[in-house]
Amino acid sequence: MMHIKTNKILGLFALLAMVISSCSDELDQPQLNNNFAGGTDFSKTDDMIFSLIGVYQSVGDRGWEQPLVVSTRGDDVNAAGDQQGLKNQDRYSYDNSFFGSRTLWETYYGDIIAAHTGMEQIARYQEFADEDGVDLANQYIAEAKVLRAILLFQLSQVYGSVFIPESSNLNDFADVTSVPSKDEVMQHLSDQMDEAIPFLLNLRPNERTDLPGGVTKYTALQIKALANQELKNYQVVAEATGEIISSGKFNLMDDYYELFKTPGKLSNETLYEFQYSDFNSGTGERVGHLYAPYGPNGWTPSVAGASAGWGFFEPSMKYVKFMLDRGETNRLETTVLFTQKGIDSIISTSTYTEATLPSFVSSTTRDGDNLTDNARAIFASGKHYLPTNQLIPGRVEYGSNKNYIVYRYAETLLMYAEAITQGANQTSISADEAFNLVRARASMPPLSGVTLDQIVDEKYAELAMEWGKRFFDMVRLGRNDELSYEGRTFTPDKAFVTYHQNQIDEFPILGNISN
């Protein structure tokens, strides 16, 4: 399977056989990212949950480079630091020997195969289950389909044409003769969500008590909407997002700044997030993501000894000036961390002065962490920043204990508003109402009769630095000029990253694809 060797699958099985005993009833604990031993006696139907938890763990265990490969294109972000392959990608010059694109492909497909393995194990348990157990197995299989879809959706956004595994059997890919197009992948995902939704819980993720923060019906509706947005099936987008809105279960967290930090963990805005935890302990076991690539390469933290970052992921000057010119406060302070060199660069290339810049444009965050000038970047991502005063005492890793938001309600509202302006029939509130809910949280004045251009700008302001959403929107809308900035030139043939040479060697058909 896509350069996934048998020994890698065996290694994954070994990983899933490990037992992590640190479960907790608190929402802050990442039950969904722990490994548990699933029994081989399928008559013990209570054990089927372990197969599902193994899928959650596998999908949430992302290497540091993978979200960067998904995210580092677009006029909201610049690649910085010493990863030349990532910097080339950011300038739409794709290197088919870049390790990041290789590991993205291999690990995502490994985890997709793990999801199929989990579904197949659950189906075996289902054979021995009573009526309630059969229903629960259907729910668990549906959850695994949604988790699989998160990864397959991102793979297709990055590469365009990708394989669609239908089982855990790697022999299915021994003699592939075609590769599904991006549109085919997106339609497949939409159909998969239609299959899953009837079996999923009608809850907000943080309402779940069995697996707090786990997949629900609304996670699947969000993925269905995203897939159909890529297909430009805007009526389906309006229907799926409208159902989420009309449920009345979601609302925007009042404090945008804290949404991406500890107080925002599993908020009412979250449709899905990868969960991590230090288990409320300053030492010992932890489940975490490596956030260092997003952090400033130099700083004086308010908590002595807290680690700095690597400076690989930098908000663009174009984005910073766009936000300043709009009069943005909450969202700009949240999204961008400033060095003094960055502030000086704003002043030297604009009409802003030290006196006219907002007070939050400072090299010291409101939580007292001071960014120092360094050779790698003049800005850093605030959405991937956890203030050091929110670290559990004893923990020093950058961003330790921080969750990683995948889908949130603000995007749902803006997708809905866009679908209406793109010609879809209203299925819930008006486009203006959805749009202005997002603006109100950002302390921006309401607008009426919103246009597509205004919604595109609002998505830029709201969703910057999140999973490459700005880049994918601009590609879908054909706004090539927006992506041609600061010396870059974007053309539609640069929409997809090239396959790594390892994948082409294993599947020569990939070398013949022109997305």
TrEMBL record:
Q: Which Pfam families match?
A: SusD-like_3, SusD_RagB
Protein name as it appears in the record: Starch-binding associating with outer membrane
For this record, the Gene Ontology CC terms, alphabetical, are: cell outer membrane
Q: Which residues form the signal peptide?
A: 1-24
- InterPro entries of this UniProt entry? SusD-like_N, SusD_RagB_dom, TPR-like_helical_dom_sf
Q: What family does the Swiss-Prot or TrEMBL record give for this protein?
A: Belongs to the SusD family.
Q: Where is the protein found, in the record's own terms?
A: Cell outer membrane
The RagB/SusD domain extends over 358-482
From which source organism is this entry?
Answer: Cellulophaga baltica
Domain of life the protein comes from: Bacteria
Q: Which Gene3D superfamilies match?
A: 1.25.40.390
Which UniProt keywords are given for this protein, alphabetically ordered? Cell outer membrane, Membrane, Signal
Domain (SusD-like N-terminal): give its ranges: 53-178
